[in-house]
Amino acid sequence: MKNRQPAYQAEPANAPRSAGSPLATTAGTLRKRLPLTVAAVGALLVLTACGGAVHADSAQGPSRAPVSGGTLVYATGDTEPACLDPIVSGNVPQALVSTQYLEPLFFQDENGEVGPWLAKSWKWSKDRLALDITVRQDVHFTDGQQLNAETIIRNVAYIKDPKTLSSTGILAVEKVASVEKISEFTARLHLSEPDNALLEHFAQVWVPIQSQKALARGAEANCLSPVGTGPFKVESWSKQQEVVLTRNDDYHTPAPTAGHSGPAYMEKIIWRFLPDHAARFAALQSGEVDVIDVLQPQNAVAAKADPALDTLIGSRPGHVVNLTLNTTEDPFNDVRVREAFVRSVDVDAALKSIFMSTVPRSNSVLSSITKFNRQNPDAYSTDVDKANRLLDEAGWTARDSEGYRTKDGQRLSTTAIQTEAVLVPVSVFEQFQHSAKAVGFELVINQEEPASFNAKRYAWDYGISPLYYTKNSPSVLNIVYDSAHIPSVIKGGYHANNNGLTGPAADAIDQALRLAATTGSEKERGELYAKAQQLIDKQYLSLPIFDQQTRLGFRSDVEGVRLLSPLGMPTFYDTWLDRS
Amino acid sequence: MSTPTHLTKTITDPEEAMTHSIQTPVLDRSPERRGPAEPRPRTRASLVSQAKELFTGLGPGIIVPLVLMLGLVAAAAIPAALAPSGPLDMNPAEAFTAPGTAHWFGTDESGRDVFSRVIHGARSSLLIGVLATVIGLGTAVVLGALAGLGTRAVDFGVSRFLEVLFAFPGLLLALLVITILGPGVVTTTIAVGLSAAPGYARMIRSQVLSVRRSGYVEASIVQGKSRAFIVRHHILPNVAAPLFVLATLGVGQAIVWASSLSFLGLGATPPDPEWGSMLSLGRLYIGNAWWLTFFPGLFIVLSAATTTLLGHGIQRKLKDK
């Protein structure tokens, strides 16, 4: 663990005090993997160059004082949220926009250390079953409501209310049994069992602190105009078009890493929904919009060559973008076949060609910016000979007329479901299909719409499914790998565990994960998560591909674009337009 | 085919006369031209000059698209002989190579040779185009004949049904069919065919109606010929020629529609080389690798233009005579 720590500390794209650091630190992340892949070399060059571009911004920065005023047009390529309150459901599109107007109790920095934000201080009980949180006394929501102990009680109750339909927030406060008011500004959380990730949970924008007065309006009204303490507030939302955010002129609770204090520079943000990648990039090139996200690799390359454009790319924490293998049915119910598939495909070649070396490889189920991540390139490297050997051992020795392996007359075949929404383009599957065929493994690709993709995923109707899970804690492993999460939350609906592994191997993983989540010692927590990852790697439950990323492209006269720790979401608090 | 051409001279209605002038010559003269037994002044000319005469007789309006068409048909028939590599052969190390001597049309994001993929894509595009047209025309002939030859009530029913179908733009109708049947090459073909059918059916109906009212049909009726005889000997032959032109024009349209559906991800499945899906994927890289969209796009245009020009050329040729 120790030897990875420096790289981790050099980490993510969210140290906004010095503008150059976001990418310099991303490059730092890469440095540790530099000898591992050729792709990483290319990525390093590209990202360092991007970092240079951002740095050039900040080099001009001091010579000009930030200008207040103006409208920033942001075009997101992610889907439009169904609700602007990230407690309801709780996904990345919501996190992107709500980071501008909602804030959590705690701030988690790029080293994973938790500090105060809206909360002033906190204190654990000896048995770690009670947590006292004292909030700041000078904070008012944009509707005038003051932040106090009652706010925390109302917020937790709102998350826990089944009618709210929270999926991310509700898991975060799973262990919170009740909340008690100790004094005007101090609330006590009683836990059902110790939870060493609780502070991390309260540092996510999916568990934000909202005005109790606003929450009392009910979910429908709150979805349209959630009320928080952030630098901006929601003015209006024209569905399928845009959300208009206006400046919070009384703002005085910037994150510890912010570049200034007082209200934001921008007067207004227009948050547009432009899902078509080519159209969104064209809008950026023409200056119709100022910032875009989900910047495609090929567009990142083009933006780099364009002096009018800059890029900011940073990793997000959690379960990396991966191909999860369904172990509940043939052929992936055999660990040898799972490893053979992983060994047969060439992830590095795909990243180098399709992603034009702009995305670094991940060799860990945990993101490179998530605490206790354990890169294990030996487990996930390409080894065609080993793949062939493993398949022979597993009894897939005969071949059919098309060259695919067979056993008892059955062809060695699996089906991958694919949707554009999960960031693994179909061309990656085409390459994997090609290399899997070389070892006699048939890979059928089913392109799905988001709805049919989810339906098949919920019904375990896949061999391979691309997935990721964003979370600022290694406890994401408890969510996606604990076999307790194999059953659907609602019958026939979402299940967090998508590999479906049961039996002794799964029991060992579960045990390590559960101990890791409850231990009071940070050192022991690290060791247990390392052990859990080792067990997960050995079972080949998923093939890690790359870190989830926030990928921004913006006009180079947009200054002070930052990514905010711990989720790596963009924040426009320090942003201003250099357009005089 | 022994169409009673003498009867056509009795046509007085100018509209019918026009229709007739388009149709009969191809039916009359084609056997004549190819039949060496036919006593003609130039029978002793060599085969070469005969071919030359045939060629110049056709004119560039037909020859140019015909040559292009033969090229496309060759690509569809023997792609392996024309393409330097297989359509699925990958080499990620050579991804995004610009067009050059090694790869005439460059390579795509997985290092596949775009020229080879375009050549291999000709088969599915042409096949979809031709089969969809056959399906469309087949359906249309049945519906059109039913309306044109049936009783007033049948005509009314079929015509109103066609009008309902006309309320949907063709591509929308195709999308509807795909929604019901599910995406894929076969369903795309059926969808494109069925959505083209209403247009054809209406034209065939009017054609059938005009032939049915013509003098030579009346003459046959007077002669006491059976209904089946009249359909077989008068109606079908006279409908066949404009159908042929329609079909040629239709293939081009069907290719474009099928490509559109593949472009939308509803037709060919990856990694099959289909022009529409290649175009769709290449569009993402349009700023970096223009050849990924240019060449598949060029071939869609080329094949559609070729068949359309051929259709128009034949139509004009028939009209001239």
Q: How are the elements arranged and paired?
A:
The complex is a heterodimer of chains A (580) and B (321).
Chain A: H1 5-9, H2 21-31, H3 38-60, E1 71-76, H4 92-98, E2 106-108, E3 114-116, E4 119-124, E5 130-135, H5 149-160, H6 169-172, E6 176-183, E7 186-191, H7 198-201, H8 212-215, H9 219-224, E8 232-238, E9 242-247, E10 268-273, H10 277-286, E11 291-292, H11 297-305, E12 309-315, E13 318-325, H12 335-344, H13 347-353, H14 377-380, H15 384-393, E14 398-399, E15 405-407, E16 410-411, E17 413-418, H16 426-438, E18 442-447, H17 450-458, E19 464-470, H18 476-481, H19 504-518, H20 522-539, E20 542-546, E21 549-555, E22 558-559, E23 562-564, E24 569-571, E25 576-577
Parallel strand pairs in A: 1-10, 1-11, 17-18
Antiparallel strand pairs in A: 2-3, 4-5, 5-7, 6-7, 8-9, 9-10, 11-21, 12-21, 13-19, 13-20, 14-15, 15-16, 22-25, 23-24
Chain B: H1 5-8, H2 14-34, H3 47-58, H4 60-77, H5 79-82, H6 114-149, H7 152-166, H8 170-181, H9 185-212, H10 215-222, H11 227-263, H12 275-283, H13 291-320
Q: How many β strands of chain A by DSSP?
A: 25
Give the structural class of chain A: alpha+beta
> Measured on Cα atoms, how large is the radius of gyration of chain A?
24 Å
Low-pLDDT stretches of chain A are 1-62
For the biggest sheet of chain B, the summary is:
none
The helix content of chain B is over 70%
Strand percent estimate of chain B: under 5%
Catalogue the unreliable spans of chain B: 1-39
Name the shape of chain B in a single word: flat
- Rg of chain B, nearest Å: 23 Å
Structural class of chain B, please?
A: mainly alpha
